[in-house]
Write a structure and sequence with these properties.
The protein is of the alpha/beta class. The protein folds into two domains: 8-128 and 299-329, Quinone Oxidoreductase, Chain A, domain 1 (Alpha-Beta Complex), CATH 3.90.180.10; 132-266, 3-Layer(aba) Sandwich (Rossmann fold), CATH 3.40.50.720. It is 29% helix and 27% strand. It has helices at residues 49-55, 122-125, 129-142, 159-170, 182-190, 204-210, 225-232, 255-259, 274-293, 310-319, and strands at residues 8-14, 23-29, 37-47, 72-80, 92-96, 105-109, 113-115, 150-153, 174-179, 195-198, 214-219, 233-241, 263-266, 301-306, 325-329. Strands 3, 4, 5, 6, 7, 14 and 15 form a seven-stranded mixed sheet that branches. Strands 10-9-8-11-12-13 form a six-stranded parallel sheet, with helices on both faces. A two-stranded antiparallel ribbon has the order 1-2. The longest helix is centred in the last third of the chain and has 20 residues, at 274-293. It binds NADP nicotinamide-adenine-dinucleotide phosphate (NAP). Keywords: NADP, Oxidoreductase. InterPro entries: ADH-like_C (IPR013149), ADH-like_N (IPR013154), ER (IPR020843), GroES-like_sf (IPR011032), NAD(P)-bd_dom_sf (IPR036291), Quinone_OxRdtase_PIG3 (IPR014189). This is NAD(P)H-quinone oxidoreductase.
Amino acid sequence: MTLPPPHVMQAMEISAPGGPEVLKPVQVTVPVPGHGQILIRVAYAGVNRPDALQRAGLYAPPPTASPLPGLEAAGHVAAVGPGVTRWQVGDAVCALLPGGGYAEYAICPEDHALPVPEGMALREAACLPETCFTVWSNVVLRGGLKAGERFLVHGGSSGIGTTAIQLARALGARVFATAGSDDKCKACLDLGAERAINYRSEDFVALMKAEGGANLILDMVGGSYLPRNVKALADDGRLVQIAFLQGPKVELNFAEVMTRRLTITGSTLRPQSDLAKARYARDLAEQVWPLIAKGALRPVMDSEFPLTEAPAAHARMESSGHIGKIVLKVA
Ligand SMILES: NC(=O)c1ccc[n+]([C@@H]2O[C@H](COP(=O)([O-])OP(=O)(O)OC[C@H]3O[C@@H](n4cnc5c(N)ncnc54)[C@H](OP(=O)(O)O)[C@@H]3O)[C@@H](O)[C@H]2O)c1
């Protein structure tokens, strides 16, 4: 028998903008699902770089979202709001959250949740939503990646990178990845990259040019990478920017963008409409979940921390020593 949710729950809050230590345990009211929303009893919550940006005061949650961090989770449906048709109490789901994943219960629109893939543990399923939504919308929809194209992803060993390598490979692209150590490069090769580039000892621009240039680059670094990405693109190539770890401001000669017909674009997932996210979820169910079912894509797991050790999880992520995803065990 499934018990009704309690009134209060344990969560980790951002007590003040700052380093990992500002994440503190707190008791808060369990959210009540509104029209079209589900309440999830969180088993595991994924940790993402944007959580660290939010914690540092650099990435404010949308006004309607929970102020608690946490953009993805897996668990069981604990309650449904009015008008919910897709899910029932007890269903195992993983979901993209507007926030609030670092807690025992979290709410989201019912069509931002996906079934836990057959045979996959909740621990792994918690790591799917944020990277799958981001990679699908930026690499496939915005970037228009096609089979046979040369695809370069920076930060290949990150949560985003490990998903991008596998998805691009499954779509028939030739995959190139950069990473900051030989161990990380090996992980990229193991996931299906044809060439992994240790950016500390190799020049990705020269290597990509020797291949004829990248048709599509997915970049989270920015800064000095912007002009170098332009050089590394093939004619008619596309650059999709999803973050600026080295900063967003740089001097760039746009003449090359014009004469070689390049496209520079980008997006962030969190501020997009519920409808846009629901469309991505539908695409993922139709096109990516079957790839997971046949073993072509799996989350790469780095480490697990109890919810109350979220500060240690953030410290690990910000040390950049990890390969793949970090999760918080909640229940
Ligand atoms: N636009 C969106 O909607 C969206 C959604 C989710 C995530 N993101 C962004 O995507 C990126 C990856 O997210 P994630 O959660 O997968 O993070 P993650 O696992 O922590 O990956 C970040 C990786 O970037 C590399 N890196 C860190 N600082 C760097 C620097 N200054 N210069 C070069 N490389 C650096 C590190 O690998 P190396 O050791 O190889 O340098 C690190 O593993 C983050 O920047 C995040 O903010 C964007």
